[in-house]
Amino acid sequence: MPEQPIGEIPPLDGSLPASAGTGNGQGLSLYVHVPYCRVRCGYCDFNTYTADELGPGANREDYREMISRELDLSTRVLAEVGAGDREVGTIFFGGGTPTLLPAEVLAGVMDDIRARYRLSPDVEVTTEANPDTLNPAYLDTLASAGFTRISVGMQSAVPHVLATLDRTHDPAKIPDVARWVKATGLELSLDLIYGTPGESIADWRASLDSALAADVDHVSAYSLIVEPGTKMGAMVRRGQLPMPDEDDLADKYEIADAAMTAAGLRWYEVSNWSKTPETRCEHNMAYWRNADWWGFGPGAHSHIGGVRFWNAKHPRAWSDRLLGGDSPAIGREVLSESTREIERIMLAARIDSELPLDSLAPGSEAAIRTFVKQGLLDAEAVAEGRFSPTLQGRLMADHMVRVLTDYVH
């Protein structure tokens, strides 16, 4: 797992600087981290734990109570900076595997959130899910509790690719899961990974075909990143698996975009496609817009009014702090204006037409003209003052960001 950032030590009561209340009047998003997994996948460096790693206070049975304590803390801290009545527009349960918890527990956490926060009438509520944890009754409970989206970790439709990723679900179950989700009235998002060692172009096309054969509203497709501290990272280092090839990744991205477009899904962020603007993941849009969110659970990160803070990573350390009446936050950073501007550009440049050209630093005009000449930006969009990467531009998004942020002082 990655190391947590190094920052200043926050107050034990979790209080924020008065400046953090300056975002009041804007919406608020909530992220709920569920750290439990049945097995830890070889490529994953998320903050996850299997059942036999955790004891009382940190286990699934005590999870709702601990989250409830953190919810109480969050509402107190926000009220202290004059931001206690902010409307919540999106809620996202991520992991780990949130759906390893009984559906009634996830529904109960939603009840606890409603008891403390004012939710938007059209609040978006998403949970990530592994296919093998879902059934119609489980989904019915989530829908009744106010969930609106299910983000299913499909990853691949090819058994040998799933085996390399240490994924345990049966890909043949995906059509059933998709049908159950849609029958319940929930939006369906599927997550795919491309570039797994041993995955051929034909394998990738098969995964895309399988995903798009479902009545899918949204697809996320991410290139595999081999992290050093993972099982897969160790296997690559020992030469047991090859590193993903950059040209192969680019080819597979182009294949994905063509398949999505043919199926009626349009890209709106470099790695995300949606059937309509209404089926975008608004929670992730909040992240990319550098909006405010509060993260609950072990290792969760938050951003409130230019203050970033993060919780103790291990569930035992997280729960011990809450049981002792303290904030679980162990570090924070008050972002400078230049850092906030750099992050705004980094995030907005990944979204179609989300970065107004007149908001860029002086001197950026020459870079924009160069990007158009290189075929990285859509010329018509630029003429209208919009930053809209072409297909090639999406593959070169990091390069464009590096150039544009050089103008920020």
Automatic annotation (TrEMBL):
Keyword 4Fe-4S among UniProt keywords: yes
Protein name stated in the entry: Heme chaperone HemW
UniProt-listed SUPFAM superfamilies: Radical SAM enzymes (SSF102114)
Domain Radical SAM core: 22-266
Classification via PROSITE patterns: RADICAL_SAM
Keywords: 4Fe-4S, Chaperone, Cytoplasm, Heme, Iron, Iron-sulfur, Metal-binding, S-adenosyl-L-methionine
Record keyword Cytoplasm present: yes
Function, in words: Probably acts as a heme chaperone, transferring heme to an unknown acceptor. Binds one molecule of heme per monomer, possibly covalently. Binds 1 [4Fe-4S] cluster. The cluster is coordinated with 3 cysteines and an exchangeable S-adenosyl-L-methionine.
Organism: Brevibacterium metallidurans
Compartments, as annotated in UniProt: Cytoplasm
NCBIfam families from the UniProt entry: hemN_rel
Residue span of region Disordered: 1-20
Family: Belongs to the anaerobic coproporphyrinogen-III oxidase family. HemW subfamily.
